[in-house]
Amino acid sequence: MDTFVGLGLQQTHDGIKGLDDDGRISRTGTVWTSSAHIITAVIGSGVLSLAWAIGQLGWVAGPIVMILFAFVIYYTSALLADCYRTGDPMTGKRNYTYSDAVQAYLGGMKVKICGVVQYVNLFGVAIGYTIAASISMMAIRRSNCFHEKGHQRHHKIAAPSESKVMKRATLVSVAVTTVFYMLCGCMGYAAFGDAAPGNLLTGFGFYNPFWLLDIANAAIVIHLVGAYQPDMAGLKFFSKEIRIRLCSNKSYSLNLFRLVWRSAFVVLTTVISMLLPSSTTSWAS
């Protein structure tokens, strides 16, 4: 009890005040904070290619496909929200990861299959991030070159369940991102027509004001580097850590498998990104 008081926690008949039913610090997220997290996680550098995508599909098929995907995303996200707790939506066992949910509801080989699909998708996303970040870095170099040498040179809420909150948050975030995507795609296509570039920040053909374009491309690089984080939480059987003593009262936890995996992951995705054709090769000169 003294420990609980020291931590600012109180013992109640339902458990420890300040902690959730799983022993972790109480969640304080709301529909609005969840929506904000989803929106900022979903909207990324992909919007730069929407004008080109709308240009390929046309004014009719383009917006229809985007709205259709919005419904698909909301439906599948709602199903995933229902899987957050196994059994009772208020008191059931929490599934912290997608793999945990698959294990709880499907089990067996399906867990391994889903794990393979997840990590194959992770490789694909990482490759795409590497290419997009390199294109933006090259755009910074190119715009500066044009500027210098001229254009002649090259909270927990009362009593609804987490699934209901996440469904509402998903609905809000999908609506906001769909409107944002429609604006980026349709306005870009309206401005450039069939000549809409594959990337609005790097395929524009003009470089003034160069400082504004540099800031925008640098933001894309920072965004992608931050998102480029391979997660090994699902592989619990490789979670053993080695304690390395730094001094008499300090030590460092080293997970050799995580170190090797992440290093190999970055090297492999970077090599594959370099082998894939992209517009960066034509900028090297």
From TrEMBL:
It is found in: Membrane. Residues 27-151, 155-278 form the Amino acid transporter transmembrane domain. Its main location: membrane. Signal peptide: none annotated. The chain crosses the membrane at residues 31-52, 59-81, 119-140, 169-190, 210-228, 259-276. InterPro entries: AA_transpt_TM. One of its GO terms (cellular component) is membrane. It comes from the Eukaryota. GO terms for biological process: amino acid transport. Keywords: Amino-acid transport, Membrane, Transmembrane, Transmembrane helix, Transport. It holds the Pfam family Aa_trans. The keyword Iron does not apply. This is Amino acid transporter transmembrane domain-containing protein. It comes from Vanilla planifolia.
